[in-house]
Amino acid sequence: MTPRPVSRGPRQPPAPTRRSAVHALVGLTLAVLSSCVGLGRQDPPAVALERGWGQFAAGEFDRAAATFAELGSREDSDLDGRVQAWFGGATTWHLRRPGQDAARATALYQRIQREAPNHDLAAWSGLQLARLGYAVAADQHPDYPAVAALYEAVISRYPDHPAATEAWLMRQAMRLETAKRPDIPGLVADLARFQRLHPEAPYQAAAWSLRAYGLTLMDSAAAACSARGAAIDAYGSEGQDPTVDLSHARWQLACQAEFEAGDFALARAAYRRFIADYPTDQRLFVAKQELRRMDELEASFRAEARGNHGR
User: Fold this and answer.
1) With 90 as the cut, is the pLDDT of residue 311 above it?
2) How many CB atoms lie within 10 A of CB 282?
3) How many whole angstroms separate alpha carbon 175 and alpha carbon 49?
4) How far is CA 300 from CA 5, 205, 297, in A?
5) Where are the alpha helices (DSSP H) in the chain?
6) Cβ-proximal residues to 202 (8 Å cutoff; 6+ apart), any chain
7) How many Cβ atoms are within 10 Å of 166's Cβ, its own excluded?
8) What is the pLDDT of residues 133-175, one digit of tens each?
9) Which residues, other chains included, contact 59 with Cβ-Cβ below 8 Å and sequence gap of 6+?
10) Residue 16, C-beta contacts closer than 8 angstroms, at least 6 positions apart
11) What percentage of the chain reaches a pLDDT higher than 70?
12) Beta carbons of 87 and 112 less than 8 angstroms apart
């Protein structure tokens, strides 16, 4: 075994010399001068904007908010640059956790709509204002009429903008959430009509999901399962990120097919796809358990039928 060296105590630093003192002074002077050179120097607006979004993505929300605020007030930035900075700041205050500040986010979204009403981000700002109004604490209810008015404003002011499509779908979701039973079939029919009139529109998967929700409220489980399957298929056909987690949608399809529609064939297929696609999901054991339960249940039905036939 290699012996450990015997410690002789902490090593003492050498006594300072005139040369080392001069070197230290020069180094300190250069460091100060270097920092002073950086003062007053600003990155180009495009670089600063990219830096702000990078800070936001990294969860450095205080730095992102400061970067966007500084860029939004710079004289060398044109209106487009300032609008993008305001939107970045609004998004940061809107979505940061912890430290969300809905009032600051609202003020910046409204500033975009006020000072640049024809900018592309004005439409998205209107949609974000509606989302802010809709997202409340779990023990509270949104001001539905106020939120509906915000969605209507986006739809009427920007009818050809993708934000209007999303606003229409979000408004429809809110209507389904608050509708009385007799009104639900009409809302589902509106969704079907929307999809027929706008086959090229984005958010087809969202429309199918809303139809599934409405059909579930109508106790039309089989039709709801078909809509859920179409939503999953549409999500892939819209060119979305293939790594997006669709486990919840597949799980809902499997459970509804088994327990509400009684379609064991569809349920088995959905559970098996879930097991194959999400082998580490905590619901994996339950999925396998449900497959066994359906097998056992059908076996008991067959045995009972044979017994009745033999009597």
Assistant:
1) no
2) 7
3) 38
4) 77, 39, 5
5) 18-38, 45-57, 61-72, 79-95, 102-115, 120-134, 144-157, 162-178, 184-197, 204-217, 221-237, 247-259, 264-277, 284-310
6) 162, 165, 166, 238
7) 22
8) 999 888 999 999 999 999 999 999 999 999 999 999 999 999 9
9) none
10) none
11) 84
12) yes
**Domain segments of the chain as ranges:** 179-244, 245-303
Q: Enter the tokens of residue 61.
A: 């929300």
Measure the CA–CA gap between 43 and 46, rounded to whole angstroms: 8
Residues sharing a CB contact under 8 Å with residue 1, sequence separation 6 or more, in sequence order: none
Contact between residue 121 and residue 87 where contact means Cβ atoms under 8 Å apart: yes
In three-state secondary structure terms, 183 is helix
Dihedral Cα 101, 106, 108, 110, nearest 10 deg = 180
> How far is residue 142's CA from residue 127's CA, in Å, rounded to a whole number?
15
Three-state DSSP class for residue 264? helix
pTM beyond 0.70: yes
Are residues 170 and 153 in contact, defined by beta-carbon separation less than 8 angstroms? no
- The whole-angstrom separation of Cα 222 and Cα 265 is 12
Nearest Cα neighbor of 147 from 132, 158, 125, 162 is 132
Can you read off the two tokens belonging to residue 50?
């990219």
| Cα-based distances in Å from 208 to 110, 205, 225, 263 | 32, 5, 10, 20
Q: What is the pLDDT of residues 39-69, one digit of tens each?
A: 446 789 999 999 999 999 999 999 999 999 9
Q: How many CB atoms lie within 10 A of CB 279?
A: 8
Q: Would you state the structure tokens that stand for residue 222, as one six-digit string?
A: 């089989």
Q: Please state the length of the chain.
A: 311
Contact 109, 90 (CB under 8 A): yes
Identity of residue 155: I
